[in-house]
Prior knowledge:
heterodimer; A: alpha+beta; PmbA/TldD fold; eight-stranded mixed β-sheet; 9 helices; B: alpha+beta; seven-stranded antiparallel β-sheet; six-stranded mixed β-sheet
Amino acid sequence: MSSTIQLLDKNIAKSVIDHGLSLGADFVELFIEKTQNQTIKILNSAVDDIGGGVDFGIGLRLVYGTKVLYGYTNNPSADELKKIATTLAVNDQQAAKNGPVNFINKPLSKVHKASLSLHSEHPLDAKIAWLMRLDQATRKVSEKIVQVVSSGMQKCQQVEIFNSEGLHIAEERNYIRLMGQAVAQDGSEQSSGYEAPGALRGWEYTEALNPTQLGEVIGRQAMTKLHADPCPAGRMPVIIDNAFGGVIFHEACGHLLETTSVAKKASVFHDKMDQMIANPCVSAVDDGTLDNEWGSISIDDEGMETQKTQLIKDGVLTSFMVDRIGSEKTGYARTGSGRRQSYRFAPASRMRNTFIEPGKNSLEEMIASVSKGIYCKKMGGGSVQPGTGEFNFNAQESYLIVDGKIERPLKSATLISTGPEVLKQISMVGNNFALAAGMCGSVSGAVPTTVGQPAIKVDDILVEGRQ
Amino acid sequence: MKSTVQKVIDMALSMGANECEVIINKGSSLSLKANEGKLEEHKVSGSQVVGVRLKNAGRLGTSYSENFEDESLRTMVKTVVETSKYSKLNEFESISAKDDGSKADATNEFTWQEDHTSAADKVSAILKLEGDVLAKGSPFKSAPYNSFSESEGEKIIANHHGLYKAMKRRYFSAYTSALVEQDGKQSMHYYGSSALTFKGLDLEKCINESCDQALGLLNGTPVKTGQYSVVFDTDNLAELWGCFLRVFSAKAAIDKVNPWAKKLGSAVASKSLTLIDEPRFKSGLSYQSFDDEGVKSESLKLIDQGVLANFLHNTATANELKTSNNGRAGRGPRGSLGVSSTHLVFAPGTDSDSDVHQGKYLEIVSLQGLHSGVDVISGDFSFGGSGYLIENGTRSQAVRNITISGNFYELIQNMGPIGKTIYTSSDCNFFAPAMRFENISVAGV
């Protein structure tokens, strides 16, 4: 797939990188991106909007030591790119240290196939029909479902990377994400349900995704919360179920393991390598290699082949996620974790598919072990203070556990703690491992990431509710 | 850019479109970051994007391109002409705005000011934002997140009726953070400033607020779980209201995702609350005299003494709800037609600030989880928070690791005192007096 991608003339790339080297830069890189996207939105059981377009631009990075100079433009001419390099280097220009570059084209060792990409001319009406089935199945759950919004997003991102070390590599990434949202209403009470599965694939992803079942899940979520009781507040044990439950590890621990924060010593884990930072039952991974997963990539946005990175093994910190600049600053080897939203961003160390590995306990065993607590079946979003790991997460669907049994649904449960604290409080890790798609925002923009875990039991955490 | 606009309109009409609108954004930016006394990141950009919205046999479509070459423009228009055939028939949305004769230059007076700040002064600014935090010494450990940026751009809105509106905008922004560490405890706080000119940036306030709050919250502990009166600082008050702005959207009302859809003319808040969307507020950074369809935008009361007075309308929503368009179309080159607010300006209350700050209450200076802890449909919210417990005018306890929850729509019907003095958010888009919210649930210990 990479051999067919040529977004920038190789001679232009060489002349620009040679120009950057002539300005004394230690490292020069061109990141060229062409992204085609299409979104179909169904509202009121009709096609509300079909939108899309093409993004094209070039990011130019010059590195002096660990200082990053970055510029971007939509203009692919050598003159424009050299002008940006000269402007950027105005205060740093020095004698050239490295000679002219010669590129060696590097093939991809792994390709994530997509048979029905945006290039396939898969008919629009087939896509609309799938989304309409999702709409109808969601509405069918109850007459109290008063609105359904569904959408399908497809994106084809082509990237081509040249750098002053002679690297020339390219990748095409095909993304698909289906979203459904339901609003339920009964008198003055309203609630909502939401699911948004996605993959690094084409429209063929929908062949294994039943719109009827997905619609029923979304509709049931909205109905479950409609007359749910307020959540109790206070410290208590919490069972966080699989898949999107992993968002807590992602936000409260994962970000603290990126060299973006480690290099600044802004992470509480910056000096904890090889130390026990979690309960011994916890092992965690950031793996960019999984076939066709939403957060997978063949190469990172610095052109390095991606990897499986063992972050925590049996409670011990074993690796950070490391990009080129992070490696320069910390001395840790790169892990293929340099990512960016688009050509508008310089790359930074970011997560890919990040998850807690499966353990031995069943979900039933975990619930049975709780005398009074909360079962969070589906987590919502949250946020974290990057320096301290303080987090706040909303549970989209949760239940009260009393005497080892699920008693009734709850609304608006929020979990609050710190990443380091919650890692120590995990006492049971389940065997029902699953992944879920999400978007992660950070210094290099929003990138597709997968979160995941089996169910975990957190012995003691602050729960906020309204009761 | 005029020729590009005309080219796209001509292409669309020649391919069968009945109506066509073009938006072009073109801009450049500079951003700087510092680390350990040196410039760590220097970023410059130049960007352009053209977006087209057209109506073809009663059906709408949108598309965009970042490449302005003829072939790319033709592909963009051809794509949208084809895909629009699958959209629903839309009798309400049309491209109908015509030039009202007003001069765009009046807008530019407030959105574009000459600035000749040297590159060296800009570098000095970012080094100061980091350096002044580090210079405070222990327990200040670093200023890990800091930025100075300057953006300028031009936006053009044009359509097949000959409407052509152009607006230039330039603004500066800066922020820094302070990370404090002592006795195994950490605390971090950010503060930012935005202005139309470099000189308008308040770098000292960025530094002092970041340092004061990071240090002040270092030994923060949760308060006892219970019901508290809460006063948010202006930035967090803006964030809180910002989570629920959908209640003013006519489009959300039509789409059945606006919980206030049927409350126009009804009491939705305390009588003491009046909220105005003011596009021509001269102290704001989002001054506009026309919206993204090119329709004139003027002052609009959203809540008038507690009563829901107006929704934000564009041409389509006004047609569908059989009312007049108030010029609040929101659309970028990449998107379809929506609505948007401009500057949110609250009317002064009748109480003094000391009435707002009397007795015991929680002063909240930082909220977390804003994008996830909100159910706009029900009004339920739950955020992490940090701040101070105030008792009789004194900060008696720094507070961290609490969550604040409630139902926003219920809370604003039972507001406590509202002050007379109007304060401005750091992004200069929100203007409000101090407000006291009563009986908010707080979970701590």
